Amino acid sequence: MKFKLFADRKGKADQAKNNRFVKLGREIYVQARKGGTNPEANYGLKSAIASARAIQMPADNIERAIKKAAGGADSVEYEEIMYEGYGPGGVAIMVKCLTDNRNRTAADVRSIFGKRGGNLGESGCVAYMFDQKGLFVIAREHGQPDEDAILMHALDAGAEDVIVDIESIEVLTAPSEFEKVKEALEAAGYLFETAGVRWLPQNTVAADGDNADKLLKMMDAFEENDDVQDVYHNFEISDEEIDRHG
Length: 246
Prior knowledge:
Blueprint: E1 3-5, H1 13-35, H2 43-54, H3 59-69, E2 79-86, E3 92-99, H4 102-115, E4 119-120, E5 130-139, H5 147-157, E6 161-164, E7 168-173, H6 178-187, E8 194-201, E9 205-206, H7 209-224, E10 228-233, E11 235-238, H8 239-244
Parallel strand pairs: 9-11
Antiparallel strand pairs: 1-11, 2-3, 2-4, 3-10, 5-7, 5-8, 6-7
Helix pairs in contact: 1-2, 1-3, 5-6
């Protein structure tokens, strides 16, 4: 049976993309406030912009976030917090947030975990199950791109691994090599469905039945929360389960 990570599932595409625009706009704002508005001198900002462009975020949105960050002392200050916990069936979940109110966000995250059969844990309780990697997802179109060509380009640029799938090709890098590999692949003409530094699980576990339903609802709730930037987890759900739970 074929499984895939929930983060890659389709559905509610337009709303999900709008949510990602909002969240990446906040990430761009935070990185510009932290390290300056010149992406060539600010790796965090450059990476955030690359992630935004990978999902076709309008250039006006990117420029607006950068201009807002340069607006002065009255600008909002956001704090990055990583929450860790367990979902139904004991699956590992990490929730990256950017917030201007730590108490509000902690209460929201705890509630999302608790209402769907999970629980918020202590810092470090699941992080050891993940590795931080640069990730590029390149979609296949009409049999392209050529597997041998992308393998050569990616490894020559410093990528750690290339994973070939029926629907896509994934390129993994060390976080420090992310920008260098991105520039090399872009120069070779590749377009990304996903591009960013993410926490990837070392191993995955299958979720089904009631646990799958609760996990899908939990992921939707995190996605709808403005303070939540990304969710990383180690569960997989089959296409059949996704279809069954809508």
